[in-house]
Each structure stands twice: as C-alpha cells, then as structure tokens.
Specification:
Order of helices and strands: EEEHHHHHH
Strand order of the largest sheet: 1-2-3
CATH class: Mainly Alpha
Structural class: mainly alpha
Strand content: 5-15%
CATH topology: Growth Hormone, Chain: A
Shape: elongated
Amino acid sequence: MSISHGKYFYDKFNCKLKASKHIKENSGLKEKYVCSMTLSDARAIDNPCTAQKFPSLITQLSITMERIVLTNVAANQMLVTLRQPRFLTPDDLIQLNPDATHLPNLPLLVETKNLTLGNMEDFLRQTYRDVSIHIVFVQQALREQIADDYRVLENELSWLEQKLFELLCKVHTLAISSNITISSFVDASVMPSSIKNIQDDTLRYMRNYILGKDTQIFLGNLEANFTTLYSEVQG
C-alpha cells in the first residue's frame, strides 16, 4: 500500500480540486478516484491546473481551515464510536493517557519557526507530507478493520480518510497557486511494522483510538498555524 502524489484533477463543472489516490495491493495497483470523473476522462486531461483561476489567498486559507474543522469532526466520530463498550471498556480507556501515549512516526505538529507568508513554502510542503502520513496510518487501520474485524469501524475510518484527502487537496491548491512545487512524498513504510496488522481486537481498537486522538492533536496545531497565516493576510 502506498500513497503518492498521483494526478490532480479539476471537475470542470464545479471547479473543485479532486485527488486521485493509489493503493498498492498484492494483486497489483488499484486506482480509486475521489472525484466522480471516470478513469478515462481523468487521464484525458493534460495539466488541468495550468489555466485555473484560483480563489484569493485569504479565501483559500479560510476554506482550508474549514476542512481542518471537518476532518477533526471525523476523527472525533471515530473516538465516540470506539468509546462504546463493545469496542473499548472504561478500563481500556484509562490506559490510554492522551498526554503520554502517541503512535510512533505520526506527526503531531508541523514544525515551523516564525511562520509568515514569506516563509510559507516550507510550511506547506511539510504540511502536505504530514497530512499524507496521517492518511497512510488511517488507510492501514481501514484495511485491517475490513480484513480482520467484519468491517466494523469501516464507515468511521473511511470518513476520516476522505476528509484527510480533502484537506490534502486544499493544501495542494495553496501550494500550486503560490508556485510551490510538491516533490517529497510518502509511502506505507512511514508506519512502523510494530503497530501494523495487530491481531488482538482490543489492542487494535486501542491503536485506532490513539490514532484518532493524535490526529485531533495534529489538526488543532495545524489550525493554529493556518490561523496565523490568515491573520497576517487580513492585516
């Protein structure tokens, strides 16, 4: 399984940026498109972003912040579901101290120093990478739930995956509209093997709970960064 830059497409009817995602499975490469365009239509478009008129920077920042909030809602819904007794008991939850328990290699903060519009380039590149890492973790959790646990949590994980991809699209739009090239991508190797393919149901639910909490922490920090940029544009 891997996530890569892929191809980015504009729906010519509503001008919303869509992302293709590539999931590499044992049987080969399966391409699943977030957009409603058919595969043949998508491949027929040559560099669709060239002539696109982008919204103003402040509008893009505002929309991106809205996507962060919606992604946070999806992460919270997964936590609400996992707090049900059929998943995690009160005793299980006591063991999951959100201040001390985090998943290895999962970013909690986009590292920035004195973030301003002038040094936004590195911030957007790192944000793109870090959101991609969160997607890899969620995709792994989703695959395990479908394969090992009768598809429970499939809706919650799929929703979170979708919202993370939508957020990734907005970050990509900000980058290309600012002439910033994204050239560093991630794959499944960013997730340690020690927390993959967990066979015990309770331990797997615990891992997914920590994933949801860590994603919320990351999104909270990311929202603060975008608020800083938004305030600077507002002047």
